[in-house]
Design goal:
Layout lengths: L12 H11 L3 H6 L18 H10 L3 H8 L5
Bound molecules: zinc ion.
The site of zinc ion (ZN) has 8 residues, from α4.
Length: about 80
């Protein structure tokens, strides 16, 4: 399953710099070390619910808990 690779998705250096400025954390480094870029916690502490959540982590660096906080939890 290639999308389970522990690798940040590509973003332009400008966007990465902006995100780093906003969060104080390097998103790419966070994804590679499986650290949440939003709360700074262990991104594997709460298992990712589905491949989409994992993908979102690769994109935004947000752990499952932070994704739930931002996007809400669907009840299905
Ligand atoms: Zn988090």
């Amino acid at each position: 399953m290639t999308n389970m690779e522990n690798k940040a998705t590509y973003k332009s250096p400008q966007i990465d710099a902006l995100l780093t400025a906003l969060t104080g954390r390097d998103r790419t480094a966070c994804v590679e070390s499986l650290t949440c870029a939003t709360c700074g916690g262990d991104a594997q502490k709460v298992a990712f619910r589905d491949p989409l959540s994992w993908k979102e982590f690769q994109i935004s660096g947000m752990c499952q808990e932070c994704q739930d906080e931002v996007f809400g939890v669907s009840e299905d």
